[in-house]
Amino acid sequence: MPDPAPPVLAQIAFQLPAAPDPTLDGPGLGGSGSDGPGLAESVPDVAGAGFAVSARAALAALARCAGFRSGRLARALDAPGTWLLTTEWDGPGAWRRALSSFDVRCTLTPLLVHAVDAPGSFEVLAEVTVLAEVTVPAEVTVPGAAGLEPGRSSRVYRSDRAADADVAAPGLGLDR
């Protein structure tokens, strides 16, 4: 039986603009007289709540696309203006086709003004999951599961990247 194709994780990080703290005033302190970034800046809950509603709509649109496996919307615990939309796909083609879906373009594009410029697609090479209940006879050994607690499983994927993917370029054959 062939190994399953590794999933692809697609992530988009968002940084909402900080609003100056109205309780502080004066130059550089974030108040109305501010001429620069404030010392105490925060994202208003109203803006964060509006973003969350829009991001959930984008996640729902992505979930309706072929090849979608799972998705999550998360907010940073220590930086409430930082959000992360993470989705898992059958492969890079499914993710790219999903981005061209009309519904996804209508819901996700307005959020991209807050997107952070960073790599966004990742090939999964290993994973550990929690299982609801595992019933495995004692004589059965599971490769790669050594040292795992009961109720957990692990899987290691083979990379689909070509061995020369980071060094090959058009016109530069490796046979020279």
TrEMBL record:
Membrane-traversing stretches: none
| Molecular functions per Gene Ontology | monooxygenase activity
User: NAD: is it a keyword of this entry?
Assistant: no
Highest taxon, organism lineage: Bacteria
Keywords associated with the record: Monooxygenase, Oxidoreductase
Compositionally biased tracts (Gly residues): 27-36
Q: Where is this region: Disordered?
A: 21-40
Question: Which named protein is this?
Answer: Antibiotic biosynthesis monooxygenase
